[in-house]
Design a protein that fits this description.
The complex is a heterodimer. Chain A is of the alpha/beta class. Chain A contains 18 helices and eleven strands. In chain A, the strands form three sheets. A six-stranded mixed sheet of chain A has the order 8-7-6-9-10-11. A three-stranded antiparallel sheet of chain A has the order 2-4-3. The longest helix of chain A has 17 residues. Chain B is 51% helix and 13% strand. The chains are: A alpha/beta, B alpha/beta.
């Protein structure tokens, strides 16, 4: 039942088909408004529409807004106008895995699900019926619940503990202190003279600047980027860490989160999704490969080349949650951490093993990472996470 | 009616070789009177598009370089406070009434125009280049949206200034941070990538017409091979041109025959110490040998 979007042949005039095309793009995750439809029509009037390549170039310039969208656009264009049938492969009504979500899902996903539920008062039951319709988010991805990795992790935490992890995370998110902005704003008593307001107010007093006004640099929040290791060696902690990250994301709209095992996956949007069913669907896609080996260095490299460019700057705090067991050579981790540090961010490493008696960071990856870290701390219990708050406020 | 093909040819005539993508986006931006957002790595010629367009149209190029902390006072307008204060003092002594003084000091004479205000007050549409918009902070982006949508600036003391002509707006970004969806939606978008071999050869031919074609082929092949290496900062088109100038200036006729000159001219391509270390003489020779 894949390929359910619509049949272009059914629509009539060019305006209709254009509306259909924009709707098709929208279904596939592009944010387009009514205005874009009009612009797209106007654009087609400016070119030789009988030439499909020209139309594609023109519509791409109008509709795509980012490099990824531009790259995806050609496929979507072909799917709609050439009836090639490359539509979204959504989940379908016959998918039994979705019918019995609690039994079929990987433990990580149910962890995330309960974490999400703890955060929202919504009852999940009403959504169960309609999940096949809006269970997916319409991205051009295949949802293969059946292929999901299943691990034997027992339920580790009670809902209260999960909620506690989230609260801790929220407090920590606040503790990561603001830095000053470079932009000046009006202020009461401190900062530089605000000539603009002084001059303006002095008119009222016959040119005498009687009232002094100031401007200062207000605080400007730093943004948090969390990277969570979900490899085999981390399985027992992944559940609490996932709730922890959910808390970080919830407390700060700028925060950003990623999972890595053998690949790096961005999970911010999935964690922010208010619809728990859909969030599970998304996380389950990302869960493929959970519990396998870890490539910390390689994933950091991917992160540095891609996401970090746009999302890590001098105001960022990067939190890495990992035990430091890396299958990549330690030199790679060393180099990539150095590259990450060059972006001006602060790097924290939370290692659950550090809490163990007699632990020394002898894992080669961990040893290579140490010189680059602003803070290397223990994170194996909720209490240890909570004590981080003071330390984070200081760095 | 000019089509995007003629625009592409015109650009090529003015020394800018644009891909189909870019030519189409620019054509649409011009005809639909929309801002054009160009994104891509540093050194792929985003800023150059605006310069060439200005030359092509015979229009003024007004450039606003964005940076963190850029605010309305530097981007739009500012009153000349020192002059205003002096004028108020002088008026006080000559016994002018408050109302007259106010009318005088809040007139255009005391207004310092910054690029955005300047751009909408031209008689002939200028090219407004808003460079590296992603360096400016979100607040400024929001303000820019307002200006880009109706091309008016409201100055509380004077009233609203309407655009005499709509400038051709080109924004560039290279991913310092994510731009807002609202801004992206308002713009025609084009992602500028490193040029392919043919395009880069054409660029080289346009900028260094005297270069022998075999050497030009080697230079482009070498730079393209270098881009495939895992470098911190891949060389852009501007670097290719510098490199070609350096090679030509050193009188080298064949990249493989003078390793010392090749290694020396790498300073135009590799801009960090790590990259220099990653391309020792042997690697450079190997790449040059393959390019030949």
């Amino acid at each position: 039942m894949a390929g359910v979007t619509r049949f272009p042949a059914r629509a009539t005039g060019p305006a209709d088909r254009m509306v259909g095309f924009i709707a098709h793009l929208r279904l596939n995750g592009m944010s387009l408004g009514v205005g874009e439809t009009a612009t797209a029509m106007a654009a087609l009037a400016e070119i030789n529409t009988t030439h499909p390549d020209e139309a594609r170039l023109a519509l791409r310039a109008v509709c795509a807004g980012t490099a990824e969208e531009a790259a995806r656009f050609d496929d979507l264009f072909a799917a709609y106008w050439k009836n090639r049938g490359l539509e979204r492969e959504g989940t379908t009504a016959g998918d039994t895995a979705l019918r019995n979500p609690e039994h079929q899902r990987s433990p990580y996903v149910s962890a995330a699900l309960s974490a999400l539920r703890a955060g929202s008062s919504e009852q999940p039951d009403p959504e169960m019926d309609g999940e096949a319709e809006h269970g997916d988010d319409g991205h051009l991805v295949g949802s293969r619940i059946a292929n999901m990795m299943r691990t034997d992790l027992r339920e580790m935490m009670t809902p209260e503990q999960i909620a506690a992890a989230q609260t801790t995370a929220e407090r920590i998110a606040r503790a990561i202190r603001d830095r000053r902005s470079r932009r000046r704003k009006a202020a009461k008593r401190r900062g530089r003279l605000d000539m603009r307001r002084i001059a303006r107010r002095s008119v009222a007093t016959g040119g005498e600047p009687l009232h002094l006004h100031f401007k200062h640099r207000p605080d400007r929040p730093g943004n948090i980027v969390a990277l969570l290791d979900v490899s085999g060696s981390m399985t027992v902690y992944a559940r609490v860490f996932l709730s922890f990250i959910k808390g970080l994301i919830g407390a700060d709209p700028r925060a950003d989160a990623y999972l890595f095992h053998t690949r790096l996956v961005r999970i911010t949007d999935a964690l922010r999704d208010n619809d728990p069913m859909r969030a599970v669907n998304r996380l389950s896609l990302m869960a493929q490969g959970f519990g396998g080996g870890t490539r910390i260095g390689g994933n950091l490299a991917t992160f540095n080349r891609g996401y970090a460019r746009a999302r890590v700057n001098g105001r960022s705090v990067v939190i890495i949650l990992s035990d430091g067991y890396d299958t990549d050579p330690p030199e790679l981790l060393d180099r990539e951490l150095a590259a990450l540090k060059r972006r001006g961010c602060r790097v924290l490493w939370l290692n659950p093993l550090k809490g163990w008696a007699g632990y020394a960071p002898v894992a080669r990856g961990m040893a290579a990472a140490l010189p680059h870290l602003d803070l290397f701390a223990v994170a194996n219990t909720l209490e240890s996470l909570a004590t981080l708050e003071q330390e984070l406020a200081r760095i | 009616m000019t089509t995007w093909r003629t625009l592409r040819d015109d650009l090529a005539g003015a020394g800018y070789v644009a891909g189909d993508d870019l030519a189409m986006a620019l054509h649409l931006a011009l005809t639909l009177e929309r801002p054009l957002l160009l994104e891509g790595a540093a050194g792929v010629g985003k800023t150059e598009v605006a310069k060439t367009l200005a030359a092509l149209k015979g229009a003024r190029l007004i450039r606003l370089q964005c940076y963190e902390g850029l605010d309305a006072a530097q981007a739009i307008y500012e009153w000349n406070y020192q002059r205003q204060l002096l004028a108020i003092r002088a008026a006080g002594e000559s016994g002018e009434t408050g109302r007259d003084v106010e009318a005088r000091i809040f007139s255009e004479e005391y207004l310092l125009e910054r690029p955005l205000l300047e751009a909408i007050q031209q008689d002939k549409p200028p090219v407004l280049l808003i460079d590296e918009i992603d360096r400016a902070d979100e607040e400024f982006e929001a303000y820019l949206l307002e200006i880009l949508s109706d091309f008016t600036v409201s100055i509380p003391e004077m009233g609203t200034v309407h655009a005499r002509t709509r400038p051709h707006v080109i924004l560039t970004a290279n991913g310092t941070r994510d731009l807002s969806d609202a801004l992206r939606r308002r713009c025609i978008y084009s992602h500028v990538d490193y040029p392919d071999r043919e395009t880069e050869l054409a660029i080289l031919a346009a900028r260094h017409p005297g270069l022998e074609s075999r050497l030009a082929g080697q230079i482009v092949g070498f730079v393209q091979a270098l881009r495939r290496e895992n470098l911190e900062k891949s060389p852009g088109v501007a670097e290719t041109l510098d490199f070609a100038a350096a090679i030509a200036g050193l009188g080298v006729a064949d990249l493989t025959e003078d390793p010392a000159a090749l290694q020396a001219s790498l300073v135009t391509l590799l801009k960090t110490q790590a990259d220099r270390a990653a391309v020792p003489a042997e690697v450079a020779q190997r790449l040059a040998g393959k390019a030949a």
